Amino acid sequence: MRRALLLFLLLCIVSIALWLTLAFLRRPSRVAVFPNGVRIEFLGSAIGAAEFTTERSWHKTARKALPASMQKWIPTAYGGNCSSGSNSATFFFRVIDPSGTMGGPDPWHSYTIDDESGFRYAASGGSCSSGGAGSKVYGLILRAYPRRQPDVRFSFRDSSDAVLATLTVPNPVTGPFPEWKPKSVPQTQTLNSVTLKLRSLQAGGSARWPAIVPDWDLSSSDSAWTNARVRRASYIDATGNEGQHLSPRESAWQLRALVFRERPEDFTVGERLRVTNLSIPAAGNFVDVDQSAERQGVKLTMLLLAGAGRLHITNGVRRGMSTNAVTQRSSSSEGTNRIETWGSASPFLLVEVQNVQPEDEIRLRLIDDQGREIKLTDPSGSSGFGFGGHIYKRSFIPPDDAKSLTLEAVVNRPLVFEFMVNPADVQPAKSPETKQ
């Protein structure tokens, strides 16, 4: 009985080894080599924020069943997670430098993606990487690429735009895609009291970063929106691509335009939170504010003003500060305590925001007792995650004669206009002689 069991286990091991060998031999080759010997291998892809890994279920089974001497048959697992929106695609590559010196600049200057007609998509999604000298895993994020094709062709280029290597990899997206019908330009739409007219579309941008430039005319019967303007505009096609320059082979593009107000006086009390008569903190000290309100469904919390130095917040409640200034934010854990550290060589403020919508802009203003607005560093975007939402940190230098401060936060929610346009309506770029 024991001999039969051993024989059965041996047959299982041999079968698994044969299975691993066949799987390895059948695996398609997605490898290229740069002129300097750097090797790049395609690992796989993921859509949106999905977690990527090369590990398969049979890898785990094989690790449990195979003896240590046969573990080398099991491929090393690689993984990652990075995206640029729910509809972006991230392509993962392993890069090996035989010299073992990699760890500084990327082994390529840029990369491009061309479709079957020769149209070039701008690589505008960003990237992420992990690893060290000799071997790194890159995630190259694409917001736009030829999604109607079965394969995607990456061309890795040097600083002179010469091709170092190309890799053709599978497209993770399949159809069918909806059929969009365009409308002719000009087009006009009205939302609330704002009328936005798309007068024309014109090719523009640069050779590396081409763009389709819309010409707008905005008007409003509401004085609060009279000085508004289109601050963001992007094109979307039926396959899910988004960018400033999409394939003209598509039957239509959706042009999405966001109209924002610009002036502080254009916002109502229901869109802002203001706290007055705040003391100016000295170095190594802070002033608790801790006032909250909900504006347009967004919870705004004025946390504090701090002088130059290093601030510690434990479990979102206990606060302490020293004059040892650091500029980098950090977080750590000590037992059941989570400690957030913020610092600056000049005074700074912290505001927490919860339930903010993707298109919202949070505008922060600091005004002294004489009505002077104080310049804040990095006027847009959050600086980190807090215990309940996004934390906005802004540094500032108050005037020497200022006695108190007013802190204001505004929820600047845009109007969103969507036009369905025909790529054929894009006018050629103006020549230098015709530009005004």
Characterize the structure shown.
This protein folds into three domains: 141 residues, no CATH class; 89 residues, no CATH class; 124 residues, no CATH class. The chain is 8% helix and 45% strand. The longest helix has 25 residues. It is globular. About 5% of the residues have low confidence.
What does the average pLDDT come to? 85
Total number of β-strand segments? 32
The major sheet is characterized as: 5 strands, antiparallel
Radius of gyration: 28 Å
Task: Please list the strands of the largest sheet in the order they lie side by side.
Answer: 1-2-5-9-8
SS-derived structural category: mainly beta
Separation, N- and C-terminal Cα atoms? 93 Å
| Fraction of residues in β-strands | over 45%
Helical element count? 2
Net shape: globular
